[in-house]
Amino acid sequence: MMKGLTFYLVDVFAEEKYAGNQLAVVRNAGALSSAHMQRIANEMHFSETAFILSDAKRNGGYDVRIFTPAREMPFAGHPTLGTAYVIRHSLVNENINKVVLNLKVGQIPVTFEKEENQEVLWMKQIPPIFGETFDAANISQMLNLSLEEIDNNYPIQEVSTGVPFVIVPLKTLDAVKRVRIDKDKHLALAKETQAETLVFCPETYKKENNLNVRVFVDLHGIPEDPAAGSANGCLAAYLSRYRYFGDDSVSARVEQGYEIGRPSLLHIKAENREGEIHVCVGGKVVMVANGELT
After folding, report:
1. Which one, 31, 54, 187, 219, has the greatest CB density within 10 A?
2. What are phi and psi of 42, to 5 degrees?
3. Where are the alpha helices (DSSP H) in the chain?
4. Nearest alpha carbon to residue 124 among 48, 210, 12, 236
5. Cross-strand pairs, 9
6. How many CA atoms lie within 13 A of 218 on its CB side?
């Protein structure tokens, strides 16, 4: 079943090759069972592997399934952008400005925009759901930080735009760098809430960026994600709701992955329209390689 299937390797949220978040995309994968897809995803062992089920559209979009090395995901940000890039440049091969993916959470549109002769992909995420809040003392222990390093001006809260994340505001870049996840405590939290963890701060490695972020995803088989579109969509919604930048309109550059040698850049936007927060996450995609499964 797998033999002869074309696959692509792309770097997502990357300013150049060999940065950002790696993604494998398998084409014409409709004949594969879920078990086969899971085995391929574990073999690739990137944060996620995406499977385009058919070259043909269905209901105006392309059917896509996404797997981490450990499980299937209803939605994930960098696979959505990376797969849309592959569809636009290798499947359709036409100058279109939008690709729609049919995912487990529903249809997700990805648009293509030119910025200074470079292509930036944007995805609109589903409206956020704000869940429970958490005790800062317990979270600080899980992160192996002091309680004073958490910014108590804002809550620690679960947010979901398709996949839930616990958003943790920290005060300094030094604190972000020194996070050492207690895996047992993190897995206990993740199993209880089905949410992974994002920490962020307003200090950055590069002065042109607005936030530094780290994302920990032990529940999905990856200790740390170098660039997480779904998590940063949750962050964008959180920033809007709590007016982190002084307003409920958010437009920010987010750096991620520096601590694990995969520097990434994500663009996030959010705004509150008549009580509903609208979230978009964008970034660049770079093709690295293609081949066939044997």
Report:
1. 219
2. -70, -35
3. 34-44, 77-86, 136-143, 173-178, 183-193, 229-241
4. 236
5. 24, 289
6. 14
How sure is the predictor about 1, in pLDDT bands with cuts at 50, 70 and 90? low
Beta strands in the chain (DSSP E): 6-12, 21-26, 48-52, 62-67, 72-73, 98-103, 106-115, 118-125, 129-133, 157-160, 164-169, 196-201, 211-217, 222-225, 250-256, 264-273, 276-283, 285-292
Per residue in 189-202, pLDDT tens? 988 899 999 999 99
Structure tokens at 230: 């779904």
Contact residues for 188 (Cβ-Cβ < 8 A; gap 6+):
none
Both tokens of 73, joined, read 């995901």
Of the listed ranges 19-28, 111-120, 259-268, the least confidently predicted one is 111-120
Segments in 147-214 forming alpha helices (H): 173-178, 183-193
| Beta carbons within 8 Å of 105's beta carbon, 6+ residues apart | 74, 75, 126, 162
Catalytic residue among 15, 43, 48, 158: 48
Rg (CA), the chain: 18
CA distance 254 to 108: 21
158 catalytic residue (yes or no): no
Give per-residue pLDDT as tens, 81-122.
999 999 999 999 778 999 999 999 999 999 999 877 789 999
pTM of the model: 0.91
* Whole-angstrom distance, CA of residue 121 vs CA of residue 147: 38
- pLDDT of 274 > 90? The answer is no
